[in-house]
Each structure stands twice: as structure tokens, then as C-alpha cells.
Write a structure and sequence with these properties.
This protein is an alpha/beta fold. It is built from 9 helices and 10 strands.
């Protein structure tokens, strides 16, 4: 489905009913909005089919950020976390979604953090999954060394600190992407590559390299689950600890999983989805 928001058309998909019958009345289910990572290099398809296991308990909305997947570019070609955060508010308000639960993974977690800080009264709950408040390249290189050795470190160092082009991206994909998760990924990627946004986000002067959300995290009010894998090289566990420490005490809870990497549901699906179900549905 498509909807016009803030001067462009966004694509979204929906799974699960929004209201359920209980005896003689209809009651609303929670609304879970999923924000994908790696804008330009990914889209909402990364959540499918894994998150379907939650559709019995909530309505799930899969959203492509502007410039990503099947959504239109920004009219002026300028992408930012702030615009994506404001789009999320406009999207919910247009569709009448109140107090959504917003889960952002990786780069989508940057958006979710910005949204929670910029619009603290809008979300019902937040989930920051395998994400970070700023990019600490040496920290990432240390994890790539631990998990993949010198060749992986060199590929990551070049892409993260020297140049982003076809050669460096291909080498990173070959040597580093397989280290993201202990469990081999059985499905080939189904996302639509959007080069304009990919460079605006991943370039050395792009959103990923220049953002620093640490000073904003204290504004977040919504109950927040920070989700991490112990063996994640690109958003290491310490990144999640940094997020919790920067937030108001009592607002955020950290849950991390052994033998799990980037998007820990890919490695520990039963435990992670059980936790997500409890967090989202419990009052």
C-alpha cells in the first residue's frame, strides 16, 4: 500500500488484524511498526517472514523509509533522521494510529531513537534493536578482528574509514557480512537497491558517519527495550550499553543474547520473539 506523507509517497505493508473480537466487544491490538536498517541497501523485506510469528498478537506495519525500497525519494533529495522521524508521526496521525510500538533495527534504530527523542509523547513503546547512538569505528574493527581475523578487519577499515565505492563494498560484503550472525542466512536478500540513498546514508560524510544521538536520548519517555546480540560486529554490544546509560534511569532495559549477532532473532528466534511478545503486549 502507499500513502502520501510530507510531500512524497511511502510504501507500507500490513500483517495481522488491528482489532479482535472478545465475547461481545471489539478490542484493539497493539500496533508494531518496523523500521528497517541500511537505508538504500535494504528495505522492509528484511523482516519477512520472521516477524509473522507475532501477527496473532498485534498488527504489524512494515514501512519503507523515504528513498528506500518502494517509497519515493524526498522531493529535494535531502534525507535525514529528523525527516524520517517526522514522517513516522505524520504516517501514524494520518492513519489514526495511537501510541505505536516502534521497532528500529540497525539504521532503523537511529530513526527510532531520533523519533523517541524528537516526539517523546507520541510512541507507546520503543525497541532499539542492534543499533547505536554513534559510529565507533575502532570498536567495530575490534569485533571484526575477534570474529573474522585480519582480512575482515582490513575490509571493514577501508569501507568504514577510507572509501565507499563498488570495490570496497563488494569486499566488505564478501568478508564482513557473513560475520554479522553466527547462523548462516538461508534466504537471499529480497530488497530493492536505491543507490542515491545508499550513498547519502553510508558515505563517509553521510548520515551514519556524522550522527551522534547521545545528547538526545535523555528526552525519551516511552518504555524502551534495547535489544542486542553478543556477537554483533557492526553494532557491538557496548553500543547498546551506551544507549541505556545515556537514557533516563528506568526508561530503558537492555536484553542481550549469547550466540547471536545483528538482529538477534535471526540466531535465537524463540527467545527473542518470546521477549518481544511480552514487552509489546504487557501493560
Amino acid at each position: 500500500m502507499r500513502i502520501a506523507i510530507n510531500g512524497k509517497v511511502l510504501f507500507f505493508d500490513v500483517e495481522g488484524e488491528g482489532w479482535a473480537r472478545r465475547n461481545d466487544t471489539m478490542v484493539p491490538k497493539p500496533t508494531l511498526i518496523l523500521l528497517h536498517g541500511a537505508p538504500g541497501n535494504s528495505d522492509h523485506s528484511v523482516f519477512k517472514p520472521d516477524f509473522s510469528v507475532l501477527a496473532d498478537a498485534m498488527q504489524i506495519i512494515y514501512l519503507d523509509l523515504s528513498g528506500a525500497g518502494r517509497s519515493e525519494d524526498e522531493p529535494d533529495g535531502h534525507f535525514s533522521l529528523e525527516r524520517w522521524a517526522d514522517d513516522l508521526v505524520a504516517f501514524c496521525d494520518t492513519l489514526g494510529i495511537e501510541k505505536p510500538v516502534v521497532l528500529g533495527v540497525s539504521g532503523g534504530g537511529f530513526v527510532a531513537q531520533c523519533y523517541g527523542a524528537r516526539h517523546p509523547d507520541h510512541p507507546g513503546k520503543l525497541i532499539f534493536a542492534s543499533t547505536q547512538a554513534f559510529l565507533d569505528v575502532p570498536r567495530c574493527l575490534e569485533e571484526f578482528a575477534r570474529l573474522g581475523g585480519p582480512d575482515a578487519v582490513d575490509a571493514a577499515r577501508v569501507l568504514l574509514s577510507e572509501r565507499v565505492d563498488g570495490e570496497s563494498s563488494a569486499r566488505f560484503a564478501a568478508l564482513c557480512n557473513p560475520l554479522y550472525n553466527p547462523t548462516p542466512m538461508p534466504l537471499k536478500p529480497a530488497y530493492i537497491f536505491r543507490p542515491k540513498l545508499a550513498m547519502a546514508f553510508h558515505g563517509l560524510e553521510g548520515i551514519w558517519h556524522t550522527m551522534d544521538l547521545r545528547g538526545e536520548l535523555g528526552k525519551i519517555k516511552a518504555p524502551t527495550l534495547v535489544l542486542a546480540g553478543d556477537d554483533d560486529p557492526i553494532t557491538p554490544l557496548q553500543d547498546s550499553r551506551d544507549i541505556v546509560e545515556a537514557m533516563t534511569p528506568g526508561v530503558a532495559t537492555l536484553a542481550h543474547f549469547a550466540n547471536a549477532g545483528h538482529g538477534p532473532w535471526r540466531d535465537q528466534p524463540e527467545a527473542v520473539f518470546a521477549l518481544l511478545r511480552r514487552f509489546i503486549t504487557e501493560a
